[in-house]
Specification:
With 247 residues, the protein is mainly alpha-helical. Helix content is 74%, strand content 0%.
């Protein structure tokens, strides 16, 4: 295995693990203010779904409009800005007890973990794009990184309820998250060195997507997310609103 593949694999694995560690961790930070009602957990999940979509949109358009040699500076600047906000801590709004809870959950998560989550969510597609422009023999087929990303996500999902939550206080968890974020950022900085100055030529799509097909794909993709929120809301209402439900 080449050095480039090792660095990219480490960066994408850590980023994917952090992406799913931060969700139950941040939601637990809301408990002292909003309690553990199902609406709190569902609102938190909705925030992360929206933020994830925003991160993917940023990765798509930044990689589309900028060549990787330039886009890396934009993304690394975003990572530096995000690390400044860590370790995160809850900022309770003045109207936390009188305002509209779902909106307040959005605001608290946005000001607490929003920037770091946004930066991490864009990491996987960005790294795959970067790797495709390197001189590595596997650059023509970078989708092994997608598999590594899935493994990292599973590790993050199971590590929090079964180990991290049981052995670390929230303050310690926030510090561990910051350490992981810094390691990921350093790995991405090293990974950016392997980017070629000119991107590889890309083949044009065979056919242009019509609006009906695009809308159908969007609806099909939205259905699982909608079901996730609906089913977990029902389960948390009748059983218990705990992070393990989303695993």
């Amino acid at each position: 295995m080449t050095l480039a593949r090792i660095v990219y694999s480490i960066a994408i694995f850590i980023g994917s693990a952090l992406l799913f560690l931060i969700q139950p961790m941040a939601a637990k930070l809301l408990l002292p203010t909003f309690g553990g009602s199902p609406a709190v957990w569902t609102s938190a999940m909705l925030f992360f779904q929206v933020a994830l979509l925003g991160g993917y949109a940023y990765a798509h358009y930044s990689n589309r409009l900028l060549d990787p040699a330039r886009q890396r500076f934009v993304h690394l600047f975003l990572l530096v800005g995000a690390v400044v906000t860590l370790p995160f801590a809850v900022k309770v709004p003045e109207n936390a007890t009188t305002g509209y809870p779902p909106l307040l959950v959005f605001l608290m998560l946005a000001t607490t973990v929003g920037l770091s989550y946004f930066a991490i969510s864009a990491g996987s597609p960005t790294l795959q794009r970067w790797f495709a422009t390197t001189a590595d023999p596997a650059a023509k087929d970078p989708y092994f990184l997608y598999a590594i990303s899935n493994v990292g996500s599973m590790v993050g999902l199971f590590a929090y309820p079964f180990y991290i939550e049981r052995h670390f206080k929230l303050g310690e968890q926030a510090n561990l998250f910051r350490l992981g974020f810094i390691v990921m950022m350093v790995a991405m900085i090293i990974a950016s060195v392997f980017i070629k100055s000119q991107p590889r030529e890309e083949t044009q799509p065979l056919e242009k997507l019509d609006r009906k097909r695009l809308l159908r794909w969007i609806l099909i993709a939205a259905a699982p997310s909608s079901l996730l929120l609906g089913v977990t809301n029902t389960i948390s209402s009748n059983i218990a609103p705990i992070p393990l439900i989303w695993v």
